[in-house]
Amino acid sequence: MSSIPDAEALYKELLKGVQALMRPQTRLVGITSGGAWLVERLQKDLSLPGAPGVISSAMHRDDFARRGLSASAQTSLPFDVNGCDVLLLDDVLYTGRTIRAVLNELFDFGRPACVRLAVLVDRGGRELPVAADFAAEKLTLPDTQLLALARANDGAFSLKVEESK
After folding, report:
1. Distance in angstroms (rounded) separating the CA atoms of residues 68 and 86
2. Half-sphere exposure at residue 6, Cβ-oriented, CA atoms within 13 angstroms
3. Kind and range of the H or E element at 8?
4. DSSP state of 64
5. DSSP-derived pairing of the beta strands 53-55 and 26-31
6. Which residues are registered as beta bridge partners of 118?
């Protein structure tokens, strides 16, 4: 990849995309940790009442035995999931396995009426049939690279590429 996209510019696109997906009863739920950072800022920028949801994939991952519980935040859904219109947010969509795990976690809390997905970056490489309803950017990276969202102390977002281990 020649250059890493500007995460702040992508956030502005994500904000527009999320606005277009919003319905009167939509609740935002961010996937830890990058999606949780995004949803925190989106909730504020969209002037939505209450707190957004945060959801962890840790307990339902198919590689749980290898990874264990991560240090990231655990699931907090400050609303009734039953019959809810849920808009999941994540930083990077890759294989689809995190989304599968998050859906399992979400359904442990109830049965939403609708679940949609918005992401900052769709990097391709899907292993499961998962697609985002909105992606601020689509790009391709080699399988040997990881793309991650970082958040500075002032709340500014950036993307970093690392070689996978």
Report:
1. 27
2. 4
3. helix 7-21
4. H
5. parallel
6. 89, 134
Give dist(CA 106, CA 83) in Å, integer.
12
If DSSP codes are grouped into helix, strand and coil, which group holds residue 128?
coil
Torsion of CA 108, 114, 120, 126, to 10 degrees: 70
* 129, 34 contact by CB (below 8 A): no
153 alpha carbon, distance to own chain's centre: 20
Task: Look up the pTM and report it.
Answer: 0.92
What's the distance, Cα to Cα, between the start and end of the chain in Å? Answer: 18
Tens-digit pLDDT profile for the chain (165 aa)?
458 999 999 999 999 999 999 999 999 999 998 999 999 999 999 999 999 999 998 888 666 455 455 555 689 999 999 999 999 999 999 999 999 999 999 999 999 999 999 999 999 999 999 999 999 999 999 999 999 999 999 999 999 999 987
